[in-house]
Design brief:
The protein is of the alpha/beta class and 236 residues long. It has a single domain, classed as Rossmann fold, CATH 3.40.50. Helix content is 42%, strand content 9%. The protein contains seven helices and five strands. It has a five-stranded parallel β-sheet. Strand 3, helix 4 and strand 4 form a beta-alpha-beta unit. The longest helix is centred in the N-terminal third of the chain and has 21 residues. The chain is globular and about 50 Å long. The relative contact order is 0.15.
Length: 236
């Protein structure tokens, strides 16, 4: 896509959200990858970010989901998406990366869990705080990949651990969605967890059922990470 057109579309996404921002008590921007982002209604895919807003009382929170498929901590910044997120002046930023960071080292989106991944996460935290936003790190949701013996395989744990280490170092709130989703998927097992997939054989992405389940897990931990949002939540 033409770079100028891409920049225009990014800015347009923020402009469209401005009416909601004018009346909401708080603004949350979500940044991340394909497990998080919005999808067209005509597609079977869903990201957990699509279902965050409905957990808040009407008019209290504006949620801007800027997550994009295929992005990592590195490429989200490189492509200008992070600048768009900062330009929306959010009160909170939910940050989930790891899936694409974990790709093979020769891939342009790849980062190393012990070094560059941590460096980029520090940048997200520092630059959020520079605009008076609260960064909330979200460890990457677990892949639903099982070994032959039925145990859950986990290639993302190094990235989840690295994110928690950065959160501790920077005194930033963290939601361990990796741990809670891993527990849920392991409990469901290969067959039942497959019901959360956007298509047969996809062990990473979600349909609506799966994305809603991830959003529920996240929202259980959000009040502890951002106590001021608790009073804005929809009460059962």
């Amino acid at each position: 896509m033409n770079p100028l057109r891409l920049t225009f579309l990014r800015c347009l996404a923020v402009v469209i959200a401005l009416p909601a921002l004018a009346f909401a008590e708080e603004t949350i921007v979500i940044v991340g990858d394909s497990t998080v982002c919005d999808y067209a209604a005509s597609r079977p895919d869903r990201g957990w970010g699509q279902f965050v807003a409905e957990h808040f009382r009407t008019g209290t929170v504006a949620v801007i989901n800027l997550a994009k498929p295929g992005r990592s901590t590195k490429t989200f910044i490189k492509e200008g998406l992070w600048n768009t997120a900062l330009a929306s002046k959010p009160a909170y930023v939910l940050i989930q990366f790891g899936h694409n960071d974990s790709h093979a080292p020769d891939r342009p989106e790849s980062t190393d869990a012990a070094t560059t991944y941590k460096d980029f996460l520090r940048r997200y935290i520092d630059e959020s705080r520079a605009i008076s936003a609260t960064p909330i790190l979200v460890t990457p949701v677990a892949r639903r990949t099982f070994a032959a013996d039925g145990t859950l395989e986990d290639a993302l744990q190094p990235y989840a651990d690295a994110m928690k280490e950065v959160a501790k170092e920077k005194n930033a709130p963290v939601i361990d969605l990796h741990a809670s989703s891993k527990e849920l998927v392991a409990k469901l097992g290969p067959e039942n967890s497959a019901a959360m997939a956007n298509k047969k054989g996809d062990n990473t992405h979600f349909n609506e059922q799966g994305a809603r389940a991830m959003a529920e897990l996240l929202m259980k931990e959000l009040p502890a990470a951002a106590p001021s949002l608790k009073e804005l939540l929809v009460t059962p």
